[in-house]
Design brief:
A hairpin with a 5-residue loop joins strand 2 (107-110) and strand 3 (116-120). The chain is 35% helix and 22% strand. The protein folds into two domains: 55-269 and 387-468, Zn peptidases (Aminopeptidase), CATH 3.40.630.10; 270-384, Alpha-Beta Plaits, CATH 3.30.70.360. It has 14 helices and 17 strands. Helix 1 (11-22) runs antiparallel to helix 2 and helix 10 runs antiparallel to helix 11 (351-371). The longest helix is centred in the C-terminal third of the chain and has 21 residues, at 351-371. By secondary structure, the chain is an alpha+beta fold. Strands 2, 3, 4, 6, 7, 8, 15, 16 and 17 form a nine-stranded mixed sheet that branches.
Length: 470
Amino acid sequence: MISRFSIALPFCFILCLIHVSSAYEDDGKDPTIKTMEAFSGYPIHEHVSPDPLSSLSVDTQGLQKQFDELASFSDSPAPSVTRILYSENDVLGRRYIKNLMSLSGLSVREDAIGNIFGRWNGDEPELAAVSTGSHTDAIPYSGKYDGVLGVLGAIEAINVLKRSGFKPKRPLEVIMFTSEEPTRFGISCLGSRLMAGIKEHAELLKNTVDNQNISFFDAAKAAGYSNVENLSSAFLNKGSYSAFVELHIEQGPILEEEAIPIGVVTAIAAPASIKVDFEGNGGHAGAALMPTRNDAGLAAAELALAVEKHVLDSGSIDTVGTVGILDLHPGAINSIPSKSHLEIDTRDIDEKRRNTVVEKIHQSALSISNKRRVMLSQFKIINQDPPASSEEFIIKAAESSARELNLPYKKMISRAYHDSLFMARISPMAMIFVPCYKGYSHKPEEYASPEAITDGVKVLALTLAKLSTQ
């Protein structure tokens, strides 16, 4: 029976078998079957029911049901999803994921802050595992695919391999990361940052509260994580995993517009986040004459335009900048703003180029402050993470998997950042993208088709299989 096959062949030999399978005469057989025959060294079609795809294909219908069920754990009505860290619905979602892991035969554990791990031990369980995963928390009124695809899709990829009879050499591990979104405590990728051993964030969490003045520790304990104060126990050493692969919706329009089913991510851009405050004298909108004004609002507006200019002057399409918050005080139509507050996001895959833009924004803020006779009371860089590059051997594994499945793919960068950015500090990493409707994300209209999801899960499954034999 297929389920009894156990694969423990040297990776180079497996590659040879795969190349042989690609040379088969085109007999209409599904390429997944050809690939798995190459893995097993045994012709699958002679030992299955008349529908040979039944043991290999993704359970698309079941997976869609899981998306819907997980989306029901939400603080906002459908079709939107709101699932905030350590909330009641977040706890219910965690329970749901752990149950799915158990049903797939994975051994499940959690660390001090709630990162969830489901492991399938291979023939050599002492080897560093190949890991995959993402997050399930959702910002207010968002969609049901961001992050979730990388968790539910990873569990289904394990199921695909198990149904095929494949047995890994290295362990395979699915990770559900805690709080990729910064919604509640203002720290993005919280779980993966701690796994990467970023000590300053562990220290920061000791004094972090949400907008209801609930501390991070109290919120975690209320969610059942009584050992949360032992944050260092979540740290992992470099090399803890041999590889990490994250499956994700693109969150951009490129794959859909170009009708390409798979994106292979070569680099992840990282942001530098800046807070800026100007202070002027304010005054009556009618009585204060224009030449004598110290308008903090106009200073903010001028800096916002300067952000755009410096980003465009970088000469790279990969450099982006956004003024996402601009607040004026006192906020009255007939009052000259006496205070203004901006929050700026700049991103790039080139750290030096991004940091040059940040410095130019700082110089502009100083110049505008002097010219408009307002005080620059704050220019604070609150986050300046380095970008990360994908490892070539994982890129090649994903590329060859797509080719063997006859799925066109495109090498691309990720302009959004993910837990993979911090997993790169622990192990080699890469990402696999699937197209999403109009590139929508972080909104209820976020959507990935069943076909796109199925393609992504198949590519992930074969990529994991390849990496697990190395």
